[in-house]
Write a structure and sequence with these properties.
By secondary structure, the protein is an alpha/beta fold. The protein is 30% helix and 22% strand. The protein has helices at 76-86, 103-116, 146-149, 166-177, 190-193, 202-207, 215-231, 243-254, 265-269, 291-302, 318-321, 338-350, 352-366; strands at residues 7-10, 13-22, 27-36, 44-48, 53-56, 58-63, 88-93, 127-133, 155-157, 182-185, 198-199, 211-212, 235-237, 259-264, 308-310, 379-383, 388-389, 408-409, 412-418, 421-424. Helix 7 packs parallel to helix 8 and helix 12 (338-350) crosses helix 13.
C-alpha cells in the first residue's frame, strides 16, 4: 500500500497562487494570497494551489491524546501532529484515561503545552482548551473541585462515561452552577447500555450482537435536560446519534433552555449496515446507528439544531482492534481525514459557509476560543475534487484505527499552514 510522508517547514510568509480563498462569505479565485505566520524563520514559500480551496483552519471537539496514563497508545506529540495534518488549529481536550479533577492535574495538563506541543514537527502551542471532570476519576462517589478548576477550564465533562445516577447528577450540576460553566455530556444510560456494543436494530439481531437501544440515549438526555431545567444550568450533548434526542433538544430550546449539541463525524458518514463486515474498526461509542438515524442527524444540521461536528478522535492499539468485534476496544481516529471525508457532502447539503461554521467557528465558540493573531493565517488547502485513498501513513503516531482505512475519500488535503508551519501532504 502506498505511503505518504508529510513534510514540515517553518516559514514566516507563504504565498498561495491560483487559490480559491474563503473571504468570509464565499470562495473567490485569487491569483495570489499572502499569509504571514508566527515563525522565527524569515524565509518565504510560494505554492501553486491549482484552483484548490483555501479554508480557515478547523477547531476540534472530542479529542483524546491518552498521555500520560496511556502514552503507550498515543501522546500529545502524536495528537498535535494529527491536528496539523488535518488542518486543526485548536481543540477542546478531554481524556477518558486522564480526568482533570483537581488543580494539580489541570496545571500538569496546561504545562505540557509549551513543551510537548512544540516537540517534533511543530511551532508554537496550539489553542487547546480543557474540559474539567465534574467527579473524581469520572466516577460517582465524590465531586471534583469544580470551583478551583473553573478559571482554567471551558466546562465540565463526563469522560464519555454513562451519566451517573440522578442524585449525583443533581449534586454535580448544583455545585457546578456556581462556576457559570457549561456541562458536557455524552447521553448514555448505564443500565440500558449494559454490555451492548452496537446499535440495537435489524443488523444486531441478524448478527447476534448485543445492542444499545435509542432509549439509552434519549432517557439519559431527558434526565440531563430535566435536571438542567430545574437548576438553570447550560448543557452540551456530545455525539448525539438519533433524531429523538434532537427533538428533545429542539423542545428544550423552545422553552428557553441553553442547550447545545454536536454529532460525530462517523455518525454522519456511516450507518449500521457496516456491521455486516464484522470489522471491529466500526466499533465506535456511541454506536453507529441506522440509515434513518443518520438522515435525522443531517436534517438536524440543516435546520440548525446541531451546533457543530465532533471528531471523537480516540486512538486504539492495533492489538485491541484486531480481535472479535465485541471484544475490541471502541474508538476511531479522525483528525487527519475528517475534512476530506466530510467536506463535499457537507457543503452540498448546507453550503460552504455553514460547513465552515460546523467545522471551525462553531466548535471554537463552544470553547470560548476567539482566533487571535497567532491563528489569523491558519489555513487548509483542500482539493475538493481530488480523490484520496486512506493509508496507514496518513495517521500520526503508531496507531491507525479508522473505519475509512483503505477507503477512497472524495477530497484531499494538499497542505496546511498553522502557527508558521507549512505541512505538505500531497
Amino acid at each position: 500500500m502506498k505511503t505518504r510522508k508529510p513534510s514540515y517547514e517553518h516559514y514566516a510568509n507563504v504565498v498561495l497562487k491560483n487559490a480559491k480563498f474563503w473571504n468570509g462569505k464565499s470562495f473567490e479565485l485569487r491569483d495570489e494570497v499572502r499569509l504571514t505566520g508566527s515563525s522565527s524563520n524569515s524565509d518565504s514559500l510560494e505554492y501553486d494551489c491549482n484552483g484548490a480551496l483555501v479554508l480557515p483552519a478547523l477547531f476540534a471537539l472530542g479529542v483524546d491524546f491518552m498521555e500520560p496514563l496511556r502514552d503507550d497508545v498515543y501522546t500529545y506529540v502524536d495528537g498535535v501532529d494529527a491536528m496539523r495534518r488535518g488542518g486543526f488549529y485548536g481543540a477542546i481536550y478531554e481524556s477518558a484515561a486522564n480526568p482533570i479533577d483537581d488543580v494539580d492535574k489541570l496545571t500538569a495538563a496546561d504545562n505540557r503545552r509549551p513543551c510537548d506541543f512544540n516537540e517534533g514537527p511543530g511551532g508554537t502551542a496550539y489553542d487547546m482548551r480543557f474540559l474539567g471532570a465534574y467527579s473524581k476519576g469520572f466516577g460517582t462517589d465524590s465531586l471534583a473541585e469544580m470551583m478551583e478548576l473553573a478559571s482554567g477550564v471551558v466546562g465540565f465533562g463526563d469522560g464519555n462515561a454513562a451519566i451517573p445516577h440522578s442524585r449525583f447528577l443533581r449534586l454535580a450540576m448544583e455545585y457546578g452552577k456556581m462556576t457559570g460553566k457549561r456541562f458536557f455530556f455524552q447521553p448514555m444510560d448505564r443500565t440500558l447500555r449494559h454490555s451492548g456494543c452496537v446499535h440495537e436494530g435489524a443488523y444486531s439481531d441478524m448478527l447476534g450482537m448485543k445492542g444499545i437501544p435509542r432509549i439509552a440515549e434519549t432517557i439519559a438526555a431527558y434526565t440531563v435536560l430535566e435536571t438542567a431545567r430545574f437548576l438553570q444550568v447550560p448543557v452540551h450533548f456530545k455525539q448525539v446519534t438519533c433524531g429523538e434526542t434532537l427533538d428533545l433538544i429542539r423542545n428544550a430550546r423552545k422553552q428557553g433552555m441553553d442547550v447545545t449539541c454536536d454529532v460525530g463525524l462517523y455518525h454522519l458518514l456511516l450507518d449500521d449496515s457496516c456491521l455486516e463486515t464484522l470489522d471491529s474498526a466500526y466499533h465506535i461509542m456511541p454506536p453507529i446507528r441506522s440509515a434513518g438515524d443518520r438522515e435525522a442527524l443531517w436534517k438536524g444540521i440543516e435546520d440548525g439544531t446541531v451546533n457543530a461536528i465532533s471528531m471523537n478522535h480516540t486512538p486504539v492499539l492495533r492489538q485491541d482492534k484486531v480481535v472479535n468485534f465485541e471484544d475490541s476496544v471502541p474508538g476511531a481516529l479522525s483528525l487527519e481525514i475528517a475534512l476530506p471525508a466530510i467536506w463535499k457532502k457537507l457543503s452540498e447539503r448546507v453550503g460552504d459557509a455553514r460547513a465552515i461554521e460546523l467545522l471551525s467557528t462553531a466548535p471554537a465558540r463552544l470553547a470560548n476560543a476567539v482566533r487571535g493573531e497567532n491563528h489569523a493565517a491558519a489555513v487548509v488547502v483542500l482539493a475538493a475534487d481530488k480523490p484520496h485513498v486512506v493509508v496507514e501513513s496518513d495517521f500520526a503516531g503508531h496507531v491507525c484505527n479508522s473505519p475509512l482505512l483503505g477507503k477512497e475519500l472524495p477530497s484531499s488535503i494538499l497542505a496546511t499552514y498553522i502557527n508558521g508551519v507549512w505541512t505538505k501532504l500531497n
